[in-house]
Automatic annotation (TrEMBL):
It is a multi-pass membrane protein. GO terms for cellular component: apical plasma membrane; caveola; cell surface; Golgi apparatus. The keyword Hydrolase does not apply. GO terms for biological process: amyloid-beta clearance by cellular catabolic process; cell adhesion; lipid storage; lipoprotein transport; long-chain fatty acid import into cell; low-density lipoprotein particle clearance; receptor-mediated endocytosis. The gene is cd36. It is found in: Apical cell membrane; Cell membrane; Golgi apparatus; Membrane raft. Belongs to the CD36 family. This is Platelet glycoprotein 4. Its main location: membrane. It catalyses: tetradecanoate(out) = tetradecanoate(in); butanoate(out) = butanoate(in); hexadecanoate(out) = hexadecanoate(in); (9Z)-octadecenoate(out) = (9Z)-octadecenoate(in). GO terms for molecular function: low-density lipoprotein particle binding; low-density lipoprotein particle receptor activity; scavenger receptor activity. It comes from Notothenia coriiceps (black rockcod).
Amino acid sequence: MPRRFCRMEQFQWWWRKDLTHTGQDIFPKRTSHSTPITPSPSCCHRAPSLTPPCQWEQRKTKSPPSTWAWLYGAYSLVPKPLHAVLESLIKASKSSLFQNRTVGEMLWGYYDPLLKDNIGLFSPYNGTYDGIYNVFDGKDDISKVGFIDSWRGESVLQFWGDKYCDMINGTDASSFPPFLDKKPLYFFSSDICRSVSAGFEQSMDLKGIKVYRYVLQPNTLASPKVNPDNQCFCRNEVITKNCTLAGVLDMSSCQAGRPIYISLAHFLGGSKSLLENVKGLNPNEKHHGTYLDVEPTTGFTLRFAKRIQVNMMYGPSNVITVLKKVKDYTIFPLVWMNETASVDDATADMLKKELITRIEMLDIIQKALLGTGVAIFVLCLISYCVVRRNQSKIV
């Protein structure tokens, strides 16, 4: 039976590093501060002048000032005959390809003289919630507990125009059905407007609790040439080079047509061309991979790391000056976010005391009863043999 709830993703975070290239991390990273995750209105509903634990880097990039008019959809949405108008607007605002912005401005918005609007990665979502989820409570079928029945009143998505790509599979990744058997886990992520799967990698110990680590399947962002199921995620054959580009997901269909592309951090698992177009990228599975650590008996996710990179697309133009030297369509990284959380010590101790210890005790009792049963059976067998032997002697 499905149950209904509203999910609002609120958590405490801080940002570290500015936008200049300072070694391995050339983009700001978000790391969850709360353990476990707890609501933090001061972080989620306030602008850049946030107080701790939200600490904002106020240093700016060293690149020249500009606007992101084309970056936020103007370039891709404006027909080519109107590129001359866009060029005039860019010149009037004295814009160039890159700009100086603080991390706070990038996240919560800044005034753009060209668009006359507040532009920011998080500003459209500030004070909002993710929508209503109908999920199965497991009363009739425990193997479906936590599975999403519908999201925002729909049992399928309306983004991709394909039955397969529009499927809402599994849970929201916060928990899964109990008694995991190391098979792939499926979950829906509204952040990327699609369902994905994670495969078992290894068993490991987390604060004295055995957990299964699941990582994103390699075929999740594979090109349709490698994984034909991803054909419906290929939205533009020119940009994706006839759908051979791997490692990025075109989000324009669920972002009002904006040329936004989602990938793993540093284009991890992506095509070599993505890395060749941008300097300073060093993909590393340990630092840039996404994983879930799930307790197999309960199905609860006790630790996770979600590392997503937001990219924008720009391409060549014979009219727009700042794009005349651009030779090909380029997917350019803006920011990558490292959202991590882990069960706290108190909750881990509670789980071990109330669950793990009792399960271990039941296992000991089960083995003891089995051993006792075997011992009784052996004694009965010996007694039977002795009695039969005595009866034979009497006869």
